[in-house]
Amino acid sequence: MGEALPVDYHTKHQANTKIWEISKEAAVAGKFPISKSHYSLIFIADAHWKIGQEKMGLDIVEPNTCVRGCCSSNSIPLHLPPSSFTLLSAIAKGAESVVYEAILDGKKVAAKKPILSTSEELDKFHKELQLLCQLHHPGIATLLAAHAKPPNYLFFFEFYEKTNLAHQLHVEEWIPDLDQALSIMLQLAKALQYLHNKGIIHRDVKPANVLLDRDFSACLADFGLAEYKKDLRRVSTVNWRSSGKPTGGFHKKNMVGTLIYMAPEILTKEIHTEKSDVYSFGVSINELLTGVIPYTDIRAEAQAHTVLEMNYTEQQLTSAVSSGGLRPVLAGIESGVPASMLSLIQKCWDANPQNRPSFNDIVLELDDMLQQRKKMEKEDLSLHQPPISHVHQVMDDVNNLHTYQEKINWSTQGECVSKGASFGVHSGFRMWLDGFDDPLAYHLVLSWGSFATCGRRESMEDMHFLMPFLCNEKDVHAFGIFDGHRGAAAAEFSVQALPEFLKALGSMCSPADALVEAFVRTDVAFRDELDSHRKSRRVIQKDWHPGCTAAVALIVKNKLFVANAGDCRTILCRRGCPVALSRDHVASCPEERNRVVSAGGEVKWQVDTWRVGRAALQVTRSIGDDDLKPAVTAEPEITETVLSVEDEFLVMASDGLWDVVSDMEVTNIIRDTVKEPAMCSKRLATEAAERGSKDNITVIVVFLCPVSTAERVY
């Protein structure tokens, strides 16, 4: 043939993409007329993929199947010895999985660990694995290996240096030039063309599911919702209506995807088709060109969530898209985007699926645009040859920019800053314990547990800690929840920093004063750290002001101190009834609203409630939110309670629970559940999700007296 394929051809879209557009099996069967050179390319490509596996030293042990025997592969190892891989830090967390940076046989990879707590979720893992084993295309994230047996179910993929397209657009604030954007569009279109030709519908096309390598080549990822078209046809809207099944059940099972990318027919409970993917593709490539979250005018994802919630309820947005013809603001022709590209986007998101083009048509149209661009650039280049020194300077500038886009680990920052401030010395809690030295006081016997879920949000911004026997002191315990907004940074920082400050203050002041001071010090430390990173250019995102609400419970012997800033909530069950130990700090509360205004803040009625400042926060107390200080204070309110034999359990939770479940309902659910605190926490979070909570949900349950795990109280 005269030249060899690049070793890493399966992640490079420029190398022999054409061979993948013809099914190898069809070529072998003689269904396509194919030249000898192309026939050779197909099998050499296959060989290169296998060589890539062998270079990793991954042996395929027969039978190479999952534990059930329903998944198999001739080239992808499906069960691995524990010594062959190591999971490192988490790089992404979602409602259904966590993605880790990992080492597989000495190579850096991405490991996706699905959250499997039900048999249905386990079925979903096997279904996704079956599908991934059948996919081999340069535009689709490469599955290197899988571990398909308990207890650790894992997918191992190529590691993509630039994470995903959404991160680049909305966190790094990357602005692609037209050629880069066109290249990504074409790569994504070819990947979807390949899927549709195999009868597969992705059902969740969006920038967050488009991975980018160091050269900004794109790969489509996350096939957790993908289905074969033939399987979707078995459940039709007509069949569903005639069977008399409840609307909610059908809707929940079949209307999958991400709301702002969903086609109108999906929002009206129709079944996904290839044209539903086309619609999502149209919204996604428009987002690539504009750089803003659909239905907002904001680049930063965290702020966009607030704007969306201010402008629409979920029902209003659904109705506006499906019935009112609402679409994201189209990229402007004044930005240099060709009119033909804008026309293609509008055709892709046409209300009538039949009017939308197929990906065969889209690939042809985009390829034609790309060839025209190359022709124009070639003509321009012949007229304007830049000096070599200028090219080197541009490359240096690009490389320098990358060094400033370092990802900050806010949890590590919180731990380091707080330990540095307290010099890592904890003098104990003798002052606290001696102050409550009553031999007749009620003696607590604690058990504790927690559960946290993204719920219906794309990312997890809640954090929490469980610290029984604080500093090895048997009568001192601390528990806390941090609910992030405008990003998770403040919550990630605070969950590490605040307990450290609390430990350091234990020998200096009372528990109540220590809690207040710990909140304030955490707030100041986070804002100082954020400001420091801004000045050092490690944080390049403009107008980024993350914050979090917080609730911390501190138990010293039989005394319970609860500190609260924001709308996390803590209740105590006493004689079967809930006792509120905190109040929500929100702008709809007249007392809080007056306090904010007196401190120089601005409170306005926006959409459906009172909100603070340009950020439109509903909460009036928080850690972080430096653009709203000092009006939005970090100083918590403190309640102090003497516990007795009448007190059964403590419940702390983020507002994702309290928005849909009342204090009394929480109490009743726990009293009707096996008395294992983690199980109770999970049941409450699950109940909130089923009732339609739109937020992250974190729950901590602490039993205050001995209980049998088999006990039920009615």
TrEMBL record:
Domain Protein kinase as annotated: residue spans: 85-370
Domain PPM-type phosphatase: 447-704
EC assignment: 2.7.11.1, 3.1.3.16
Molecular-function annotations in GO: ATP binding; metal ion binding; protein serine/threonine kinase activity; protein serine/threonine phosphatase activity
PANTHER family documented for this protein: MITOGEN-ACTIVATED PROTEIN KINASE KINASE KINASE 20 (PTHR44329:SF288), SERINE/THREONINE-PROTEIN KINASE TNNI3K-RELATED (PTHR44329)
Protein species of origin: Gossypium tomentosum
Name of protein: Protein kinase and PP2C-like domain-containing protein
Top-level taxon: Eukaryota
Cofactor requirements of the protein: Mg(2+); Mn(2+)
Catalytic function, reaction form: L-threonyl-[protein] + ATP = O-phospho-L-threonyl-[protein] + ADP + H(+); L-seryl-[protein] + ATP = O-phospho-L-seryl-[protein] + ADP + H(+); O-phospho-L-seryl-[protein] + H2O = L-seryl-[protein] + phosphate; O-phospho-L-threonyl-[protein] + H2O = L-threonyl-[protein] + phosphate
Spans traversing the lipid bilayer: none
The family this protein is said to belong to: In the C-terminal section; belongs to the PP2C family.
Record keywords, A-Z: ATP-binding, Hydrolase, Kinase, Magnesium, Manganese, Metal-binding, Multifunctional enzyme, Nucleotide-binding, Protein phosphatase, Serine/threonine-protein kinase, Transferase
Signal peptide: none
